[in-house]
User: Fold 2,3-bisphosphoglycerate-dependent phosphoglycerate mutase from Mucilaginibacter gotjawali.
Amino acid sequence: MQKLVLLRHGESIWNKENRFTGWTDVDLSEAGIEQAHKAGQLLKAHGYSFDAGYTSVLKRAIKTLDIVLEELDELWIPVQKSWRLNERFYGALQGLNKAETAAKYGADLVQKWRRDPHELPPAVTKKDDRYPGKDARYKHLTERELPLTENLKETMERVLPFWNEFIVPAIRKNQKVIVCAHGNSLRALVQYIDHLTDEEVTKLDIPTGTPLIYELDEGLERIRHYYLE
Ligand SMILES: O=C(O)[C@@H](CO)OP(=O)(O)O
Assistant:
């Protein structure tokens, strides 16, 4: 049996302000920093230890993993950062307040943009400052890989190559792995690991700063999963 730990970053400043975040690189809030420390302490109290960490190129996830590893005194382990673990790119919604957007466009449409795995939020143009092609950290991406908007299905399509190329081989080598990512990159991963239907994933919400433990069999099929609280 293998254990895999998935962790959504602690609360960010824009989670707190109820804004669509996506690839915007906002920092953790005070509460988010506290959540990250608590997650690390909880993992330590339950005897967890890691050989490898994986995170996105966004500071709310990077810092959360750092704080967790600091609590475990394992800041030395190799940590791989990839854009493929980033939050779902939220297009032209990024920066807008979720409640104000619901009041403007209607709660049903906004809920579809947020949770329907096939629904695409309004796109940014390549001239928009939010277009990732303008950000140095994405300069190695091809134009096709640079999103203008993304739904959960597309998020899954860019998360899975990273899962298969790096995380699966590490687990198969018996490494103890922690993946610190985002609400929707983790929803995509959970949909894949748990074989969830689109309807089931629509209802799935992953809380910030709460370790989600997966026990996997040799074929990396889920035996059980639970939150450490
Ligand atoms: O704003 C975002 O990027 C995400 C996660 O906070 O929001 P949502 O809950 O709508 O997926």
Summary: Residues 24 and 32 are 16 Å apart (CA to CA). The domain at 2-227 is CATH 3.40.50.1240 (Rossmann fold). The chain has a mean pLDDT of 98.
